[in-house]
């Protein structure tokens, strides 16, 4: 069965704390499925566009739990791999009083670091309209080579290619390696989703979010750049060679009762991809993605909080009254 979208990257376990504060002061955690590309894949499914998802989990209880969770959300298992020789990645989340979070990873040689080049064949890419990947699997090989390989071949197959750097400094040898490898990836990318801080880490940020987006386009690679700003909303800039009209738009966020910001950026990506594939213009795509992201912050955990179209529409209607 062919699908219109392929998402590539890690699936892992997020351990969500029972209260805010430093990791060393938290006594209890709740297990939640996570991983930025996994969240995007499930987010697309929740928005009624279930994609193919290429990922790799360990042959352990956590991996089996994640396989079941992905299946429960309607994702096909065609490219969900189980690694008999590696464990599933774990990430412990810490929150401050505003809901912002940091991650501590247990990811040395785990299954998602062992994606192998060539697993996604040319026929699959020929059937795909859109391919999305995240930056975590670029942090170490062979997953680094596998991710770069599929991005390059997706671009050659005329897929629309989108990418989220998802900078996690503790996973990279140094800042220079991050900038170099992600720069290699961006050469094959049509759309980039990033924060100002991530663009600055790539050496192409600075100034306002709109100026940062323009610099990212001028650096070569993406024709459209989204810069997310948390509760303040997002901006997007599209160049003349984008398949939608060239524009620079700035849309505010939505006021909601925030419980947990984990996965909000991934929800934004799923919302933006959905809106653009629906044929919406850039401004409408940013507004819809902001609504999806805001709704995702109103519950704990990344994947569990991803909203339906109806939930996002409810927020949009409330704000328009």
TrEMBL record:
Tell me which UniProt keywords the record has, alphabetically.
Answer: ATP-binding, Kinase, Nucleotide-binding, Transferase
The record's listing under InterPro entries reads: Carboh/pur_kinase_PfkB_CS (IPR002173), PfkB_Carbo_kinase (IPR050306), PfkB_dom (IPR011611), Ribokinase-like (IPR029056)
Where do the Carbohydrate kinase PfkB domain residues begin and end? Answer: 3-309
Question: Which Gene3D superfamilies does the UniProt record give?
Answer: 3.40.1190.20
Tell me the superkingdom of the source.
Archaea
Recorded GO terms, molecular function?
ATP binding; kinase activity
Query: Which SUPFAM superfamilies does the record associate with it?
Result: Ribokinase-like
Kindly indicate whether the keyword Kinase belongs to this entry.
yes
PANTHER family reported in the protein's UniProt record: HEXOKINASE FAMILY MEMBER (PTHR43085), PSEUDOURIDINE KINASE-RELATED (PTHR43085:SF1)
Which family is this sequence assigned to?
A: Belongs to the carbohydrate kinase PfkB family.
What is this protein called in UniProt?
Answer: PfkB domain protein
Q: Source species, please?
A: Natrinema altunense (strain JCM 12890 / CGMCC 1.3731 / AJ2)
Taxonomy, top ranks, is: Archaea, Methanobacteriati, Methanobacteriota, Stenosarchaea group, Halobacteria
């Amino acid at each position: 069965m062919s699908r219109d979208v392929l998402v590539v990257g890690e699936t892992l376990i997020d351990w969500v704390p029972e209260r805010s504060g430093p990791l060393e002061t938290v006594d209890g955690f709740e297990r939640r499925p996570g991983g930025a590309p996994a969240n995007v894949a499930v987010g697309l499914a929740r928005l009624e566009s279930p994609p193919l998802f290429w990922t790799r989990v360990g042959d352990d209880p956590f991996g089996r739990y994640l396989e079941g969770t992905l299946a429960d959300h309607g994702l096909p298992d065609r490219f969900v791999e189980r690694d008999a020789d590696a464990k599933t990645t774990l990430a412990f989340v810490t929150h401050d009083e505003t809901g912002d979070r940091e991650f501590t990873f247990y990811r040395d040689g785990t299954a998602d670091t062992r994606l192998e080049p060539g697993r996604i064949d040319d026929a699959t890419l020929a059937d795909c309209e859109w391919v999305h990947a995240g930056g975590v699997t670029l942090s170490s090989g062979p997953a680094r080579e596998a991710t770069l390989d599929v991005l390059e071949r997706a671009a050659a197959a005329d897929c629309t290619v989108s990418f989220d750097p998802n900078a996690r400094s503790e996973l990279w040898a140094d800042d220079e390696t991050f900038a170099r490898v992600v720069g290699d990836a961006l050469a094959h990318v049509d759309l980039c989703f990033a924060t100002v801080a991530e663009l600055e880490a790539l050496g192409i940020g600075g100034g306002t979010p709109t100026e940062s987006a323009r610099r990212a386009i001028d650096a070569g690679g993406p024709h459209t750049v989204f810069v997310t700003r948390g509760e303040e909303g997002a901006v997007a800039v599209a160049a003349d060679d984008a398949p939608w009209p060239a524009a620079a738009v700035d849309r505010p966020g939505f006021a909601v009762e925030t419980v947990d910001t984990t996965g909000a950026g991934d929800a934004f990506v799923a919302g933006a991809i959905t809106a653009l594939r629906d044929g919406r213009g850039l401004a409408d795509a940013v507004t819809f993605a902001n609504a999806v992201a805001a709704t995702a912050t109103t519950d704990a955990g990344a994947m569990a909080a991803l909203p339906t179209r109806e939930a996002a529409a409810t927020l949009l209607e409330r704000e328009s009254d």
